[in-house]
Amino acid sequence: MSQSSWDAVDAYVQEQLFEPDATLDDALAASAAAGLPPIALTASQAKLLHLIARAHGARSVLEVGTLGGYSTIWLARALPPDGRVISLELHESYAEVANANVARAGVAGLIEIIVGPAGDSLRELVSRDAGPFDLIFIDADKQSTPEYFEQALALARPGALIITDNVVRDGALADASSEDPRVLGMRRFHDLLARESRQGRVSATTIQTVGAKGYDGFTLALVER
Ligand code: DHB
Ligand code: MG
Question: What three-state secondary structure class fits 88?
Fold first, then answer.
């Protein structure tokens, strides 16, 4: 089993379970045309995030790493009319693409994209008491994930879910000799999760995934009440 069968299954699932959606296609096309890296979630992954947000009854969502706003649109579509998504993006040029994409999707009123280093933006959100958030999605530079998660905890309401993307990295997560800073980031993230779990602050699991974006995985953490 390898990439071609993972691609085929993702395509099959999309054909069976997804309505054609020109807005989302346009968002991906505009992101590609602007030169953004092709690292947005797959449709299947983004819909999982959307369904989790709906099942959780999320009203306030924080996203770390906007890219072209593809997952941001899926998240916004999960919210009630008075919901909100705050999404943090390092690159001004990516945020411009994302703002155009969310406007075309008709969800601009629900979404605020804040430009700058996510660590700074998160500190600012903590200092102005911008939380609490019901759902937080961390999908930015991988080496900083533990720091983002710590700040996310400060912004999460009790009972919140924190979902973190790209934690498995082709299986390198389990390689104690890896020197890849992104893998080291995800191993430090799991050290942090282990400490927070022992202290009863979170309960977490990591799920390995395969699909059109290869072999990776995500972590789901529940903030204990
Ligand atoms: C990369 C980042 C992502 O968020 C992702 O989903 C896949 C790859 C990357 O930086 O390589
Ligand atoms: Mg990602």
Answer: strand
